[in-house]
Design goal:
The complex is a heterodimer of chains A (333) and B (268). Chain A is globular. Chain A has 333 residues and is α/β, with parallel strands linked by helices. Chain A is 35% helix and 25% strand. Helix content of chain B is 78%, strand content 0%. Chain B contains 14 helices and no strands. The two termini of chain B are 34 Å apart. The chains are: A alpha/beta (333), B mainly alpha (268). At the A-B interface, helix 2, strand 6 and helix 3 of A face helix 1, helix 2 and helix 6 of B.
């Protein structure tokens, strides 16, 4: 079967910045592929190349077997793009925006109306909201209407560039639900994200990229078996305790504990969830160590990078950083 | 794969996409009160100030100042109405709307064409308001109705031309704030022209700019077409002379800036 996306040795540079440095990637039909990476890894450049907005300097890119550089018109007919910004008209209602998108996809008026109504329903829009001007929407609703607009043309491949960046947790969950329901209906999705948990929730395959090339790829399960499913993080009460806490957390079956002196934190990758947490609590108590805080969480992108490449992501990765990747529409890489 | 092929082959026509994009532009204008109301008030205030505050101090030979002023005011309002295109284009680029449109199966020409169509509608509206305010402060047409309509047509044609200048500026600016800054070039073009004061009253070096820049030709063409016989006392040449030069300038502006806009647009 023709792959949904097939990228071979993609190169793209902007002036001195190398955005894509020989990227190889295959997305199979029926898949949600998540491209995971820090700011500046080349995620947006890759999506924009698939969306025919950029031409690669070198390499080949096929979308459903069509050459993205040579036959952009054919590619445009089968894709829907929702970028990092809500590219909808604030002075139009949600419904009007979707109907406009339908008309732009070449649908007749009646079909555009029908598809718009369907997309609104698929994304769980409230009837009261669809006829309000988009400028009265919350950030989450804007993103949702943006995703809906990219669906009206019933694309075979939906491109979502950091769909949940900058959203509050509730909107994020809503959008995840919406994306999942699309996938169930058979749309292939290419998604970029900075969040491991997002890729884990939505994707059937994850490709981790950095500096414009693939550093790791696999199913979420495969990747997690390499990096541990969860992380236990302990906030030590005093700096003197750090070493002892780290010793207590050294078990044969888990990874090396990481000690961050500046923040007095010790973290360790673990396979199981609450079981490991309970064991850790027990060990701390046996050792007579008091801690300020102990928590169980998903690994951050930084920890994933460390586990897979032996070094952290080259960025100031506050794991839930809500900053957008690049501000200008062109300066992104 | 059958449906996929059908989807691949589905052709997308030019006109509905252009119309859809134009409709968006018009709705945006109508539903943004700042654009409609403020634009109108700003224009009216400008005219009132010149008519009643400065007007008394400005002497013009041959015609009353209101008849001198209003054609100048209407002609320069074309620039002020059209300068929104620069910020509009920059905004659409920045907010990803253009990316979305460019990833869709529509001709690239529809994106700029739709905008130009919507902006032309806006220009007609703006000119109608400006003209109405002009009449309200005492301007009267002294020539024929046909000439007045020709003046209106000329203004639309010129507006279409400067649209490309502002679209090009918008694509060069990259963000709405910078675009707004670029668009300030309308001020020297507006004021260092024959629009509000006779060019002869300016210093010599400035006169050579004022006499040869497009707005002066446009303003004088509108005067020649609306002031009837009294225009002869004010202007050295016939209406045709000014009209031809205005249109040549318009053609020149389109020739330079339309390709630049399209080029910048493709690349961005």
């Amino acid at each position: 079967m023709t792959p949904t996306i097939e990228a071979v040795g993609l190169h793209k540079r902007f002036g001195k910045t190398v955005a894509l440095d020989g990227l190889d990637l295959v997305a199979e039909p029926g898949q949600v592929l998540a491209v995971l990476g820090p700011n500046g890894a080349g995620k947006t450049t890759f999506v924009r190349t698939v969306a025919t907005l950029l031409r690669p300097d070198r390499g080949e890119l096929r979308v459903f077997g069509r050459d993205a550089a040579g036959q952009p018109a054919a590619v445009r007919r089968v894709i829907g793009l929702a970028g990092q910004y809500a590219a909808v008209e604030p002075a139009m209602t949600g419904r009007e925006n979707l109907e406009m998108a339908g008309r732009l996809f070449g649908l007749d008026r009646k079909t555009a109306k029908r598809r718009a109504a369907r997309a609104l329903e698929q994304l769980g829009f409230d009837q009261r909201d669809v006829d309000r001007l988009v400028r009265t929407y919350s950030g989450g609703m804007r993103r949702k209407i943006d995703v809906a607009a990219s669906m009206v043309g019933e694309p075979r491949l939906l491109l979502l560039d950091e769909p949940t960046t900058g959203l509050d947790p509730r909107s994020r969950l809503e959008l995840w639900d919406a994306i999942r329901s699309l996938v169930e209906q058979g749309t292939d999705v290419l998604l970029t994200t900075q969040y491991l948990d997002e890729a884990d929730h939505l994707a059937s395959r994850i490709v981790i990229i950095d500096h414009g090339r693939v550093v790791a790829a696999g199913t979420p399960k495969e990747l997690k078996s390499r990096i541990g499913r969860n992380v236990i993080e302990i906030h030590a009460r005093s700096a003197e305790d750090l070493t002892r806490v780290a010793q207590v957390l050294t078990y044969p079956d888990v990874g090396e504990p990481r000690v961050e002196e500046a923040t007095r934190r010790v973290s360790v990758s673990v396979e199981s969830g609450t079981g490991s947490l309970r064991a850790a609590l027990g060990s701390l108590e046996t050792a007579g160590l008091e801690v300020d805080d102990i928590s169980l969480r998903a690994p951050t992108l930084d920890e994933v990078f460390l586990a897979l490449t032996g070094r952290g992501a080259d960025v100031d990765t506050a794991p839930q950083s809500q900053s957008r990747e690049g501000v200008g529409s062109r300066g992104n890489s | 794969m059958a449906t996929a092929e059908a989807q691949m082959e589905r052709s997308t026509k030019l006109s509905p996409s252009t119309v859809a994009i134009a409709k968006r532009g018009i709705l945006k204008f109508l539903r943004t009160p700042q654009l409609v109301v403020l634009g109108t008030i700003q224009g009216a205030m400008f005219l009132l100030i010149f008519r009643y505050v400065f007007g008394g101090a400005i002497g013009v030979e041959g015609v009353s100042y209101v008849d001198f002023l209003v054609p100048g005011f209407i002609a320069t309002s074309v620039l002020f109405i059209r300068m929104n295109a620069a910020t509009g284009v920059a905004e659409d680029l920045q907010q990803g709307l253009i990316d979305r449109l460019r990833s869709m199966p529509i001709p690239r020409s529809a994106i700029l064409g739709g905008r130009a169509l919507a902006d032309s509608a806006e220009l007609v509206w703006g000119l109608a308001i400006t003209t109405a305010v002009g009449f309200a402060v005492g301007f009267r047409i002294h020539g024929s109705v046909a000439e007045a309509l020709a003046a209106f047509g000329l203004l639309l044609a010129f507006g279409f031309a400067v649209e490309w200048l502002f679209i090009a500026l918008g694509t060069l600016a990259g963000n709405p704030q910078a675009a707004q800054g670029f668009a300030l070039l309308v001020f020297p073009l507006t004021f260092v022209s024959s629009a509000f004061v006779p060019v002869e009253t300016m210093p010599g070096w400035m006169q050579s700019f004022a006499n040869n820049q497009p707005i002066t030709y446009l303003v004088d063409a509108v005067r020649a077409l609306t002031l009837g016989d009294s225009a002869n006392q004010l202007l050295a040449h016939s209406a045709g002379w000014y009209v031809v030069r205005s249109l040549l300038w318009a053609a020149g502006i389109v020739t330079v800036f339309a390709p630049l806009a399209v080029l910048r647009f493709r690349r961005s």
